[in-house]
Specification:
The chain is mainly alpha-helical and 168 residues long. It has one domain. The chain is 66% helix and 6% strand. It contains 5 helices and 3 strands; from the N terminus they run ααααβββα. The chain has a 3-stranded antiparallel beta sheet with strand order 1-2-3. β2 and β3 form a beta hairpin.
Amino acid sequence: MAENYPTSRRALLALLLAPVPPVLLLFLFDVAERVSAFGSEAILGAALLAIYTLIVAEVLAIVFGGIALVTLWHRVRASLPVALLVGGAVATLPIAVFILLMSIDMGGSGTYNASYNGQSTVIDNKKTAYGLWRDFISLSYLFGLGALGGATFWLICRPKKSAVPSDA
């Protein structure tokens, strides 16, 4: 049975539009947090951050999403669960690699300590259990946003109902 795949033009449009809903959701959460903390003048800062985030998300979606699309095209049946997993992986893997590279002890002079909400995340250049937990929480959050982008991609690229062959 031949499966209908979207045109490459529709797939490119989906790659371009997939990061928009996650960045919009992130923007809405960021605006709510900033306005409650700093007042209404913080909306401009949240909007600029959303624009920069959208630019980075577009680049990641086009590069890594394009690689995933070319790799999986005609090899994996297009479905929503596949789109959710690939979208989450596209959003998470670059940041996960960055976190792994940053956790390598370069042996430099001095010590580095960091904390989050009063809890130590790095002590003497070594991640603490809480630091690893915060990394996991951040990556899970990114995976969820990427899955939303994958769902957006699938909604744009899914086969039309008329394209599905009937049993009759």
